[in-house]
Amino acid sequence: MQTEKGIGRVITASSVGTLIEWYDFYIFGSLSTIIAQKFFPSSNPTAALLSTLATFAAGFIVRPFGALVFGRIGDLIGRKYTFLLTLVLMGLSTFLIGCVPSYATIGGWAPFLVLLLRLIQGLALGGEYGGAATYVAEHAPAHKRGYYTSWIQTTATLGLFVSLGVILSIRRWVGVDEFVNGQGWRYPFLLSIVLVIVSIFIRLKMSESPLFAKLKLEGKTSVNPLKESFGHKENFKMVLLALFGATMGQGVIWYTGQFYAQNFILTKCNVEYEQANTIILIALVFATPFFVVFGFLSDKWGRKKIMLAGMLLGVLLYRPIFKELFQIADTSNKVVASTKVVANNGPIASLNDALQPTTTISTFTDDTQLKTTVTQKDTVLPPVIKKEVTLNKGSQWRMIGLVALMVLFVTMVYGPIAAFLVELFPTRIRYTSMSLPYHIGNGVFGGLVPFVATLITTLPGTDHLSGLWYPIGAALLSFIIGLIYLSDKNKIVDDHK
């Protein structure tokens, strides 16, 4: 096993690459409202946003296929070169998304090309995570496996953090108008190529996992990892238990606490773009260290208790938390202190436009501000109404506290899960076996949360909280299965016997 200093280098080299892959993957989600305007027809904004979220979700749906393809390569050839390959694919596809012309320029080719590149992103990420987690776990001593692998677990949230930080920085640098209506939104995608080159340089210096290298030297690597992983009854049973008893619940908790929260604050609470993303950023700063805390505690208390507690807290508290988020930004019960109307402050898009936008700015007694823009494009269609709420400082910090609480649930389910999955499967098929349930649970069940939850709220008879029934139901089912069938014994499977 590695020395403490050696394992530090392993974690750093693995984490930097994985963080960059998550950064690449999440830029798309963080810019979904702008991408909806650029790559899809603008006649129906809700349909365009749903199309964007569906494209975002498509990247998650193909992740299990990436897990199968690259997991097999990782179990046959080795961990190091496999996640070098996934890194290159991710970086190139992200860079190219920044180069695709808009719908106004090339029509239907725009959403097609974006979807294609998004699918490549999903395939690459499907192969990345399992390799990184396996690589670190196979260097770590058994009694600190939860602690060391928890550093890899921070990379997903840090990737989201970096993506939001880069987006907000570029938005301020180029100006809001250039970022939203010009080419500024492309820069976070184009920046990816630089980050990936740096990461490749770091990873080229890494050596192969010692457990895999030993297995290869002894000629004990699997000849057919897919058949061995899913063709053997006992191993396949563990794959299903890992999926429905752990990763499904972990996935919906992860995406509800971070991505759906972001989407909800932007589209249901109508909080101003920069303030909404600042709320998420600060909440992530407060809560991210708990990935390592819960990874460390899982070495002492066991993985199962901590992960299931995180799921149960999400099931019980999501509706009260999201209800509170909505009420904080709801201006219907506030007292107006002043109102200002600004007319004729926008360009005429075409000769069919009968009126230019009219903006009303209402300031309330608690310093909350509501900006309402009404655009009447013609005399047939109803006006397009856009609301934007700027919260006062106290309300902003209340939202930060609520989002940080949800990210805390995320750290409970996500901090220990890499060690939990690694310990379920033997080295010879670990990359393949752990990657599939992780990416179905996290990528498919979790990645669909923003799309499915938003879709539910558009159905007749639903309200702004109805979308939460999807993650709550999935987390509850996973909690029950995990409670009954999962073991809390954190013993790694021995493949040398």
TrEMBL record:
The keyword Membrane belongs to this UniProt entry's keyword annotation: yes
Membrane association type: Multi-pass membrane protein
Keywords (A to Z) from UniProt: Cell membrane, Membrane, Transmembrane, Transmembrane helix, Transport
A GO molecular-function annotation: transmembrane transporter activity
Domain of life according to the entry: Bacteria
Coiled-coil blocks: none
Subcellular location: Cell membrane
Listed transmembrane segments: 47-70, 82-103, 109-130, 151-173, 185-204, 238-256, 276-297, 306-322, 399-424, 436-456, 468-487
InterPro entries linked to this entry: MFS_dom, MFS_sugar_transport-like, MFS_trans_sf, Sugar_transporter_CS
Main localization category: membrane
GO CC annotations on file: plasma membrane
Residue stretches making up the Major facilitator superfamily (MFS) profile domain: 10-490
Identification of the protein by name: MFS transporter
